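> tool_call: predict_assembly(chains=three)
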Amino acid sequence: MSQLVGYTVDSRVRWTEYLPWVLAVLVYFLLPDYLSLGSRVLTYILFALSLDLIIGYAGIITLGHASFFGLGAYITGILAAKLGVTDPLIQLLASGLGAGLLGLVTGAVILKMKGLTQLMLTLAISALCLEVANKATFITGGADGLSGMEIAPILGLFKFDLFGKTAYLYCLFLLFLTWVVIRRLIYSPFGVSLMGIRENAARMHAIGAPVYQKLMVVYTLSALIAGLSGALLAQTNQFVGLNVLGFEPSGELLVMLILGGVGRLYGAFVGPVVFLLAQDYLAKQFPEYWYFGIGLLLVLVVLFARGGVLGILDKFTASSKARQSGAQSS
Amino acid sequence: MTYALETRGLSKSFGALTVADRIDFQLDVGARHALIGPNGAGKTTFVNLLTGRLAPSEGLVFLGGEEVSNLSQSERVKKGLGRTFQINTLFPKMSVLDNVALGVSERLGLSSGLWKTAKSYANVTEEAMSLLELLGIESDAQHIVKDLPYGKQRLVEIAIALGLKPKVLLLDEPAAGVPSMESQRILSALDLLPKDIAIMIIEHDMDLVFKFAQKITVLVQGAVLCEGSPQEIAKDTRVHQVYLGEQRA
Amino acid sequence: MEIFLSSLVSVAFHGLAYGMILYVISVGLSVTMGLMGFTNLAHGVFAMTGGYVLVVSLSKFDIPFPLALALCFGLVALVSVVLERTLYARLYGEAELEQVLFTIGLIYMSVAVARLIFGTLQQPVILPEYLKGQFSLMGRDFPAYRVFLILFTSAIIAALWFGVERTIWGAKVRASVDNRAMAQSIGINTKSLFTTTFAVGSGLAGLGGGLGAEIVAIQPTYPFEQLVFFLIVVSVGGLGSLRGPFVAALLIGVTDTACKYWLPEFGAFFIYIATIGLLLWRPQGLLGKRS
């Protein structure tokens, strides 16, 4: 199995890497009725990218990533609905910074712990955020949610239209920018050292790497990006409810990422597409069976298909290459 | 006189169990030193205390004359203390070159680079490659470490430590698990190490110890039993007793 | 003052009952995690199953209460053995992420099944007549069931502590928690030890779930909602220890009850803050071993 990150890895953009963007643009022109689902997919791809940074690259398991997503969503919601700050870019910035700050504070606590304690704390912080949002009804709308959000046109020019066209392109653009940043990060020396931490943190300490600081950087960055994706969700739906917080969205995101493939950058693209499309079709028809199916999928993936969809594709191309070279040599 | 590495009264206890007992130890600059002792004597514990992986109950550690007792592992590494592990502690799914490059880039302070690709740092890859050449494993540069035979993995361990350009190098059983024919390669590698580095090896392979060491310390039950040149140690009756049991009169 | 003291006693009493239930459910998790090193987030599923077993036994099959409790323990223990041998055992020694994902998958599946069979509402518990009503003690009235809970769980806990600290089985468990490799090399059959201990721990969870059905409502989302509390009990108490989680569970029980009574606007807020604070001070838990 070849390495994806490293000092000798070719980081030039492969032709396959253009596919997601080509596909996204095609969807805009060919499937205008599905743009709101499309925006949702793009938002969750951004969210999944942020989670992959932590789980796939730094190797830290978190069950509470929705805390940053939810905080981002609520910051934008409160700015738009209660404080009259309607400029979407300012909302985005505020959400990112707010979530990043939460990431900084919680990361300082969590990253000092290990194992079950660390995992539990991610859950506890997530539960804490949900509890606050639930109780602070005067600002969050509590169980009723936050509506009446006002979003001004982007840059004063692009209004959020009823067909979701502006929203879709807005999400796509933001995703693209973030992808550029994350991609550079992964192939940089910092990215390689993250991989080192994931592979063997003890060894990283023994080569003098400031492991804690590096993890803090990646955790805060990941929180910031998750906050941005939360803001996107709030802006495209013009509504924020309690379902952006807690174990449910965190768990769902985990399933999406595992489905696509962890630690491979594009797993975060494939997973949400497959999951959300399936959910859109199946969950409405058979909600309980859908839920059962997710659980079964997780169990089966762990037992038989570790690398997710991309992992299966890998095996496929590897075996077909082997067959090709076998046929050539004989 | 400044020692490369020194401890004064270094002790560690877990409740009633003492694993390090007031150890006073000096490692000369440029030394070729060996630490031997029966199983459970506390040799690896001693190394963990030296590197900061384990905090002592009492005592002080000095690196090049500077007290480092309160510094973390990473901080001691930055001051020039390198180690290898008894059990391979490598980055299993990464290539041999990357394993070494990680240490080199840390040392050069380049590992926080966020924007330029790792590949563009040619100085890192060149230096890592030259270390692999020094140990004779440059042909395995692109191989994934976990697919290598055990003996070569041991060499990668040493290469990583060398990439830190340490002033003091602690090798914990470098030949452990390596077939005795291959341990010659390890010995040659040790011979090629710069003369100004102080090296201490923990070993059970007495052949390797006597060929390599100019001075030997014997550790028994967490305390220093005796110290001396290989010839002195070979003749010391206390050492015989410890390894071979009581001699019949 | 009189009223304050009265509510203090009430909070302490109800907090104690809740704490003891929390302990009976969570102790299995502490021991199996310390023993098998397996991150079993699905532990709450066993508690929930015990709760459903009790409710169904009492309302549908008219089974006498003591027998229903025995079923909670026995049936859940049996199910856990089957799960352990067929599925869990494949993932021993795997990375934590795999175990986390697997057990979350189990939670999803069991939540869906519970919803399909029982619907989403809380299950009402029909207590036997002799456990209903009030119990008089020192001029005060306490709910009889809660008194029974406290006494019965004390007996269970005493039996458990005796079992772990005085029997051969317990000695093997303690040895294996301390040093698995060493235990195997002196001939302890860790495989069967895992299975029996897992069965006992899960059975206890089932029993606790059933007993506590009145305090912690039985509904399909139970494993998700209660997970964080079980994990807090185990990490604050100290993984693999018996006494630590007991103290932690009582603290949580009383604190949670006190907060819900005096500061209902804050909910479980303080529990989470207190947990974070405590772990910052003692990362290995109250009575856990420092690694």
